[in-house]
Specification:
Helices cover about 30% and strands about 25% of the residues. The two termini are about 40 Å apart. The chain is globular. By secondary structure, it is of the alpha/beta class. It contains 19 helices and 29 strands. The C terminus is likely disordered.
Length: about 625
């Protein structure tokens, strides 16, 4: 199986074999469980990881799963990591995915996993014994009779001695990362061993990590940052990871910070909302009981990274010994495996004041005059782009732009993934883009940014993808959820988008309705029903809802909703609502406009502070 040579490992399978041989007794992973019978830490050594990998791989080989997609549906990070290692050992293509939810298998996650199952054509699903009944019921409800479900933690499953080594090549797939596309039309990013190895080297180089670092997080293991940075990078280094379930963190954010203290975590992070949640939920007296002095890299990879969030978190937990310089903004995306850029570890993160009107015209310029300075937009420095050939490009003409001009970020390098699974035309357009001068082989990120003094500043998004609390939401999924929640809304158009208010991105939905809204009680119930539907199906807080008359939402000549134009109308005061619910920060942004019915209805944000993951 080994591809090891005098030059070292060439696939991640080689890396895993090397770590298991070198450090059999060292801890590879600690899972912190807060629910069920097995409350407490579950420890996994490198030796045990290797034993489990061989046992699981023997079953996969018996089923001839080599080279084929296998869905990994786990609640346990320890069992997930073991299953992924087993897929590597067998040469199978792992597909990390969330456990399906919803009664009858029709929740948002269930729909997404069903679409992933269909897209991959997988005939085998791996899970743990505790989740096997739920997964089996979901498969039955989804009428996927030809798909087998195996619980990999059953001791009688597989024989480590029966495993046969498989030679893995750099261009073989290391996994499929489903991240792009809507719930009903997902796209799997094909990440090869070459891509993964290059990005692991980049992570080590940019973050300055080593085997003594300890990684601690709560991000889902099917999330690219949770999987590649928090679980796989420690294996690359020969270090240790500590992980808890997202639900454990959201219910009690102190659990995450307590784990960072207890286990001496040095690297870990998440999107903006997790830091806001910690500040909102953890009083200063409790913060003072922590020791966060060893946490040297507080990763923030959400887009956009919020300076206010970084400063607020650093101030609040300075009493726990957290260094202000620990804040670490970075930029990345799944199509580039994970990391693209980041600053220098240990140095204070930086921002740059930008004239907002100049930015709208595609230029980075310093604000001039007191009024301009007061209204300046603060851009976070995401550091130099290392390991890629980066270009800033005018997206329509595909013309490279000079430094100081805003355009789409294009990338070229070994970390750029191979393309989208079974989507050759989209892969050609996205992963092998060509400049107007004929230079080719670039990844189109869909993100807008600017280079200044050799450093990258991400300014916005070219696509209509909504990024909320570090999560990607497609507007059509939110709009569909709202329309389906109330029969009277289904004929009308809807537009979902984000606005920047109160120091964070906030979700807004503008929905046409023919319903009569004079009855306040009925209107309140309708609003709550829509908010609950979006919270349940999209896992996002809907604090801003505007109900408008039919024909209000602008469309193209072909009938497509013009979301950017709807957002512009809202911000300019042109949008006339018959009823609206607004977060106070958005109300202030809009100048405290009143609806045609008089006083607005103000509802509290859904539980969870800055939003739910």
């Amino acid at each position: 199986m080994s591809n090891l040579s005098t030059t070292g490992p060439v696939t991640f399978t080689d890396v895993l074999c090397e770590r298991i041989a070198e450090r059999p007794d060292a801890e590879a992973h600690v899972e912190l469980r807060h629910r069920g019978a097995a409350v407490g830490p579950v420890r996994l050594s490198y030796g045990e990881l290797g034993l489990r990998a061989r046992r699981i791989a023997s079953v996969l080989q018996e089923r001839r799963a080599g080279g084929t997609p296998v869905l990994l549906l786990y609640a346990s990070t320890a069992e997930f990591l073991s299953a992924y290692a087993g897929c590597l050992y067998a040469g199978a293509v792992a597909v990390p995915a969330p456990l399906p939810d919803g009664a009858g298998g029709h929740g948002r996650r269930a729909d997404r996993v069903r679409a992933m199952l269909d897209d991959t054509g997988a005939r085998l699903v791996l899970t743990e014994a505790a989740s096997a009944p739920q997964v089996s019921r979901w498969l039955a409800d989804a009428r996927r009779d030809g798909v087998d479900c195996l619980a990999t933690d059953r001791p009688e499953l597989g024989d480590p001695a029966a495993w046969q080594p498989v030679r893995t090549r750099p261009d073989d797939l290391a996994f499929l990362q489903y991240t792009s596309g809507s719930v009903r039309d997902p796209r799997g990013v094909m990440v090869s061993h070459r891509n993964l190895m290059d990005n692991q080297r980049l992570l080590q180089q940019v973050l300055g990590t080593n085997a003594q670092d300890r990684f601690g997080g709560w991000l889902p293991h099917y999330h690219d940052m949770g999987f590649i940075a928090h679980l796989l990078h420690p294996v690359w280094l020969g270090g240790m990871s500590v992980q808890m379930a997202p639900e454990s963190f959201v219910r009690q954010p102190m659990r995450w910070l307590r784990a960072i203290d207890t286990y001496g975590v040095t690297v870990g992070g998440g999107p903006n909302f997790c830091y806001d949640l910690c500040v909102d939920r953890i009083p200063e007296a409790e913060a003072a009981s922590l020791d966060l002095s060893r946490w040297r890299l507080v990763l923030n990879g959400a887009e956009p990274v919020r300076p206010h969030t970084l400063r607020r978190f650093a101030r609040h937990f300075a009493v726990a010994g957290l260094r202000a310089s620990a804040g670490y903004p970075c930029y990345g995306l799944a199509e580039a495996t994970l990391l693209v850029s980041g600053g220098a570890p240990g140095e204070p993160w930086r921002t740059r004041a930008a004239d907002p009107e100049a930015l709208e015209r595609g230029r980075l310029a310093e604000p001039q005059g007191a009024e301009a300075v007061a209204g300046a937009r603060e851009l976070v420095d995401c550091g130099p782009v290392t390991g890629y050939d980066v270009r800033i490009v005018e997206p329509e003409e595909r013309r490279e732009l000079p430094a100081g001009r805003v355009g789409e970020i294009w990338l070229r390098g070994d970390s750029v993934a191979m393309g989208y699974w079974k989507r050759p035309e989209e892969s050609e357009e996205t992963f092998r883009a060509t400049l107007d001068d004929g230079e080719t082989g670039f990844l189109r990120t869909g993100d807008l940014g600017v280079l200044a003094d050799g450093r990258l500043y991400v300014t916005g998004r070219l696509k209509e993808l909504i990024i909320l609390n570090g999560r990607n939401l497609y507007p059509q999924d939110v709009e569909w959820t709202v329309r389906e929640a109330a029969a009277g809304l289904r004929p009308g158009a809807a537009a979902a988008f984000c606005v920047d208010a109160g120091g964070r991105e906030q979700l807004v939905v503008v929905q046409e309705t023919r319903a009569e809204l004079e009855d306040a009680g009925r209107t309140n119930r309708l609003v709550r029903r829509l908010q609950e539907a979006v919270g349940a199906e999209c896992n996002a807080p809907l604090a801003n809802l505007l109900l408008v008359r039919p024909g209000t939402v602008p469309r193209t000549t072909s009938g497509k909703v013009r979301r950017a134009e709807t957002r512009r109308m809202l911000l300019s005061g042109e949008l006339q609502a018959v009823h609206q619910v607004l977060d106070p920060a958005v109300r202030d942004l809009l100048g405290a406009r009143r609806t045609a019915l008089g006083e607005d209805l103000l509802l509290p944000e859904p539980a969870g502070g800055g939003g739910r993951w």
